[in-house]
Amino acid sequence: MDIKVFETPLETARQVGNYLVKLISDNSQINIVLSGGTTPIMLFDFLAQDQKLFNEWHKVQFYWSDERCVPPDNRESNYKMALEHLLDKINVPSENIHRIHGEDDPVIEADKYGKLLKDHITQKNGWPVFDLVLLGMGDDGHTASIFPHQMQLLNASEICVVATHPISGQKRISLSGNVINNALHVVFLVTGENKKEKVAEVIKKTGNWKTYPAAFVNPLQGNLHWFLDKAAAGLLY
Ligand code: 6PG
Questions:
Q1: Which residue among 33, 34, 35 has the greatest number of ligand 1 atoms within 8 angstroms of its CB, and so is best to mutate?
Q2: pTM of the entire structure?
Q3: How far does residue 143's CA lie from ligand 1's centre (Å)?
């Protein structure tokens, strides 16, 4: 596990951006999983203006860690956020963008997306092997759309699962923990004072860490990187 701490959220996002620029530049083809929420916005804005990647985007296949079960033009859609801050600003072929259809029946879409991953991504240990999975972490210790009340989704037998937001009850579609942990590189991008308790418990395996899904992200054969700002790392050292 590699932990990097930076002064500000923007600097942290930029550092993840630099990490991704190198990863994309070093590969002829790369399958990347984007996370949702708000933290990645600064990262996507940085990547969208990066000149080194201007002619590299054709190498990247974009997937998602999870999606809210809403239409793609809904303000809550993770796809919409990525489209506005990154995908609409770069010359990536549309066929390289593999969004989760949040507007469709969750059970059917979870199965369809799982089959799509099986068809498109090299398998190892019986699971797709992504080159990079980008994750965030909620202030309740969730990651992707695996929440503390549904820890069983970490070890689901499916590639993609239907999850539920614990407060709103909103249906989500999420990669299961086994897929996340089968990746070559997993990057957590976590910033903000409100995350510091969970960051410390998850990384140090203290307190109630066993109840936080993020604590069970541990790539079997891959590398785990935490990119934190000082606020989120406030209780780490
Ligand atoms: C989502 C994300 C989720 C997110 C965390 C952190 O769909 O919301 O995939 O796992 O990464 O909730 O969200 P923030 O970046 O908004 O704090």
A1: 35
A2: 0.98
A3: 7
